[in-house]
Amino acid sequence: MTAALALARQAMDENEVPVGAVVVKNQQIIGRGFNRPLATHDPTAHAEIAAIRDAAQFLGNDRLQDCDIWVTLEPCAMCAGAIAHARIKRLYFGAGDAKGGAVEHGPILFGQSTVHHKPEIYGGIMAEEATALLKLFFQSRR
Amino acid sequence: MTAALALARQAMDENEVPVGAVVVKNQQIIGRGFNRPLATHDPTAHAEIAAIRDAAQFLGNDRLQDCDIWVTLEPCAMCAGAIAHARIKRLYFGAGDAKGGAVEHGPILFGQSTVHHKPEIYGGIMAEEATALLKLFFQSRR
């Protein structure tokens, strides 16, 4: 999660909402991403999507077997859907997101009967650090 | 929708599940995509994501203002989330998808109180053609 937080800081340096993510397999980081929809002109460029695409390229496979994802913020519906498609084994996230989150909030996607893959879910990891970054970012933009 | 169906056929030619999508602005197609997670080693490479990314590159903006999306199959949670992030104005889709769909089925994403953007939704457009393609594809793989 320390690596994911470092990526979130990189997003903040580029004036993007600070969220970072890494994909880990066999205790090795194989995918990295941070939120950057503005710079890339890409509404899908969330941290998780970037990290998953990066890891899938690394593995040469659209299924990330035995991979975990660590992300600083609770995933939205788009990212939770991508986590399911990628067959991620474990989802570790930092801060909960009552507004945009889709794991513990809103549609609670992995609790839906139609979801085709459900990772193990561990929330609240280094949540204070993740929240502090987000607060700092939004305060600086006022 | 005819253009989206042609893209779905292109997916089938590449042995991918045949789904196609186009983004339209001012009666002009500005984004195209078809489903190709296998060829691209990318679990996020659904038709809608590809078409949205294509259109966002064309516009140089992560928000697709006054744009509509036409897709041959009911979007999944990932793609419905992307449609919300992109601020798509109208969603036109072909066949419903009881298993993977997230618009009329499963989480019914745009009905959630936390969704930050809800397009106008028109389903069932040329649904027979879309369904016929999908059936043909899955029959050919048996």
Automatic annotation (TrEMBL), chains A, B:
Q: Which residues are responsible for catalysis? A: E48
Signal peptide stretch? none
Establish whether keyword Zinc is in the entry: yes
Q: Which reaction does it catalyse?
A: adenosine(34) in tRNA + H2O + H(+) = inosine(34) in tRNA + NH4(+)
- From the UniProt record, which GO molecular function terms apply? tRNA-specific adenosine-34 deaminase activity; zinc ion binding
Entry-linked PROSITE patterns: CYT_DCMP_DEAMINASES_1, CYT_DCMP_DEAMINASES_2
Question: Which cofactors does the annotated protein need, by name?
Answer: Zn(2+)
List of residues binding Zn(2+): H46, C76, C79
Q: Which residues form the CMP/dCMP-type deaminase domain?
A: 1-104
KW Zinc (keyword) present = yes
Record's function text:
Catalyzes the deamination of adenosine to inosine at the wobble position 34 of tRNA(Arg2).
State the PANTHER family in the record: CYTOSINE DEAMINASE FAMILY MEMBER, TRNA-SPECIFIC ADENOSINE DEAMINASE
Please state which protein family the record places this protein in. Answer: Belongs to the cytidine and deoxycytidylate deaminase family. ADAT2 subfamily.
Q: How does it assemble?
A: Homodimer.
Protein name as annotated? tRNA-specific adenosine deaminase
